[in-house]
Amino acid sequence: MTKVPFLDLKSINAQYRAELVEACARVIDSGWYISGGELEQFEQDFATYCGSKCCIGVANGLDALVLVLRAWLELGKLSPGDEVIVPANTYIASILAISANGLTPILVEPDEKSYNLCPLKVEQAITGRTRAILPVHLYGQISDMPAILAIADAHGLLVLEDCAQAHGASIDGRKAGNWGHASGFSFYPGKNLGALGDAGAITTNDDELADTLKALRNYGSHEKYKNLFKGMNSRLDEMQAAMLGVKLKHLDRETQQRRSIAALYDQSIVNSNITLPYGAVAGAIENEAHVYHLYVIRTQKRDALQKHLHECGVQSLIHYPIPPHKQQAYSELSGERYPLTEAIHREVLSLPMSPVLNETDVNRVIAACNSFRP
Ligand SMILES: *Cc1c(COP(=O)(O)O)cnc(C)c1O
Predict the structure, then answer these.
(1) Is 326 tagged catalytic?
(2) What tens digit of pLDDT does each residue of 206-257 get?
(3) Do residues 56 and 199 make contact, with C-beta atoms less than 8 angstroms apart?
(4) pTM of the full predicted structure?
(5) Is ligand 1 within 6 A of the CB of residue 165?
(6) What spacing in Å lies between the alpha carbon of 198 and ligand 1's midpoint?
């Protein structure tokens, strides 16, 4: 019997093959491959999609976060050593962006139900050196942004959203990427809006920040051979911008397909050993707040469940097996204790989720979960 794949990227992109090939040919024939019309068009389209004033394409999602913090350092809004609050249970890139800039990551335990930043714990973590909050919309669910913005306003803090997993998630019609002072997106191929290579973007409503970022992604230069900053080379190339332009048109339909699959899992997986994902943040319309980048269940019998799913032909993955503070790269944090984060990392398991998962496969995943007897 064929396997139920976790994420079938080949089939996802095959749906748009003709459009992608056409866009690809257009770029080849243009003779212009970096910083041209394809990028400008995609930046406009993605800014419009998010409801933001500005979009700045960059090379990947990590660079998007690194560059925003770097720009705030250049603009004097941050200083080296300043504290940035970040969830302890995030993908490590969110934290790498903070330490790459000589800032201090302050890890905070998440909300147990949403796995996103808990406003109460954020407030408790604020000190005299806190200058920014970096909420991560983990697994595709937007964080409790109204509460986080209220705290940021009260304490004069900057907010940088990590939207790498949450393209299109919204609260009251306001999308991820349009809540904080700036946001970083990843278009890594496996993300909900995925390029055919590496790509990323920043959204913001702040023109001065946008201008600074446009220089920083291009050696620190606004104008050829004049350098205002010691910048980077982090550009979103014409080919990837063209691929993303094609795929953006289909994003909302794909998100609806993800939500339909999640609804089937929600309704039909019944097993006392398995905890299903909690819906949305309080006050949000549940359906809009989550774009199901991942469908993450929790179980104290994770190894046994993963083995059982594997025997049933269902591929599952763990996001993520080791918390950042237990990584060798962050040995300076290894003494810190985050019991909830550690439990989450021990117990989470991601079920197959993609816009091309068919009903037969969804039913096989459900049956495999329901037949699990540890
Ligand atoms: C994927 C991801 C990133 C990094 O994006 P890249 O494009 O791979 O650099 C950052 N944060 C989170 C939460 C992610 O999932």
Answers:
(1) no
(2) 999 999 999 999 999 988 889 999 999 999 999 999 999 999 999 999 999 9
(3) no
(4) 0.97
(5) yes
(6) 10
